[in-house]
TrEMBL record:
UniProt superkingdom: Eukaryota
Name of the featured protein: GH18 domain-containing protein
Lineage: Eukaryota, Viridiplantae, Streptophyta, Embryophyta, Tracheophyta
SUPFAM superfamilies reported in the protein's UniProt record: (Trans)glycosidases, Chitinase insertion domain
Key words, A-Z: Glycoprotein, Glycosidase, Hydrolase, Signal
Species per Swiss-Prot/TrEMBL record: Arabis nemorensis
Homology family: Belongs to the glycosyl hydrolase 18 family. Chitinase class V subfamily.
One GO BP annotation of this record: chitin catabolic process
Alphabetized SMART domains for the sequence: Glyco_18
């Protein structure tokens, strides 16, 4: 009997450490990510995947009749080769199939999440699709559960999703699929609270959409579209969102800070009033005022426009004549990346890679993360 206990102890320790390894094999140490979508007309082959740890392919759709996740026929070829294509430049980059999006029918997601059978259809089909297309994970972009019941159902959905991917990995012998979700910048969606504990327990991380704070479609004055800070503490900001999620119980290492590679253009009411919160007459340049970072750079060059970096909110704007554009340039992006690292967040993501200008913002972000110390030197109280 004397030799049995050491053997059992050795076996137990081996199993323990092996279990730790399996459990940590899907854990992420950093997320440096961006989204790609086909309507951007940016070729997948042009993505410099060496600048990212993760890339999101957007969007798969929800069939409201069958509650199955599907990819539009026009996108199937690009989606099915997405992972293979981006791994040619970076074999270590992980890919996630993103489901939903800002223009998706939110009532279909609410209906699907309300019923165990339809949730199972969604979950099983998403796993099959991710595996058949070679993705490493799945991302849910439901914008947004808007009632307490919908939030509760969202929590149930992601809990069942987690159980399903764990079971699938066990039965298939493959590494577990990653699970993420794009969520409102704050855990408080207009007085409706996210199920933070379910989020923390079920998802590998959440992408905090800390942008679209000001835009011509809903703001009659100019404003920072993606402010990191709001000096008044009355309006939206990335920092306020991060604080709300963490204070509600989300571990910092499950939060990924989002920022835009686009801005919004307004037509000023008065060309002599061109700072934040100046009166406007509506959108400029495009019907909704949205404009990618590349075209913003061209606007600046073509018009010899004035550019301003505002360190108080951490945002940029440019103006020429009566056209005013709020956006994020290199300094804003770098400051936000440093903030994310020094807050102890898992990382950052951008929407979207096709709007960058020769990968300039993505390169600045990646370098900033690598160089930033994990201290609180820039964190404001």
């Amino acid at each position: 009997m004397s030799f049995i206990k050491p053997i059992l102890l050795s076996v137990s320790l081996t199993f323990f450490f092996f279990s730790l390894f399996l459990g940590s094999s899907s854990a992420q140490t950093v997320v440096k990510a961006s989204y790609w979508f086909p309507a951007s007309e940016f070729p997948v082959t042009d993505i410099d995947s060496s600048l990212f740890t993760h890339l999101f392919c957007a969007f798969a759709d929800l069939n409201s009749q069958t509650n199955q996740v599907v990819v539009a026929s026009a996108n199937q070829a690009k989606f099915s080769t997405f992972t293979q294509t981006v791994q040619q430049r970076n074999p270590n980059v992980k890919t996630l199939l993103s489901i939903g999006g800002g223009i998706a029918d939110k009532t279909a997601y609410a209906s699907m999440a309300s019923n165990p059978t339809s949730r199972r259809s969604f979950i099983d089909s998403s796993i099959r699709l991710a595996r058949s297309y070679g993705f490493h994970g799945l991302d849910l972009d439901w914008e947004y559960p808007s009632t307490p019941t919908e939030m509760s159902n969202f929590g149930t959905l992601i809990q069942e999703w987690r159980s399903a991917v764990v079971a699938e990995a066990s039965s298939s012998g493959r590494q577990r699929l990653l699970l993420a979700a794009a969520v409102f910048y704050s855990n408080n969606y207009y007085s409706v609270l996210y199920p933070v504990q379910a989020v923390a327990n079920s998802l590998d991380w959440v992408n905090l959409m800390a942008y679209d704070f000001y835009g011509p479609g809903w703001s009659r004055v100019t404003g920072p579209p993606a402010a990191l800070y709001d000096p008044s503490n009355a309006g939206p900001s990335g920092d306020a969102g991060v604080r709300s999620w963490i204070q509600a119980g989300l571990p910092a290492k499950k939060a990924v800070l989002g920022f835009p590679y686009y801005g919004y253009a307004w037509r000023l009411s008065n060309a002599n009033s061109h700072s934040y919160y100046a009166p406007t007459t509506g959108a400029a340049i495009s019907p909704d005022g949205s404009i990618g970072y590349g075209p913003i750079r061209k606007f600046i060059a073509d018009n010899r426009a004035t550019t301003v970096y505002n360190a108080t909110v951490v945002g940029d704007y440019t103006y020429s004549g009566t056209t005013w554009i709020g956006y994020d340039d290199n300094q804003s992006i770098v400051t936000k990346v440093r903030y994310a690292k020094q807050r102890g967040l898992l990382g950052y993501f951008s929407w979207h890679v096709g709007a960058d200008d020769n990968s300039g913002l993505s390169r600045a972000a990646s370098q900033a993360w690598n160089a930033a110390p994990a201290t609180a030197s820039i964190i404001r109280s």
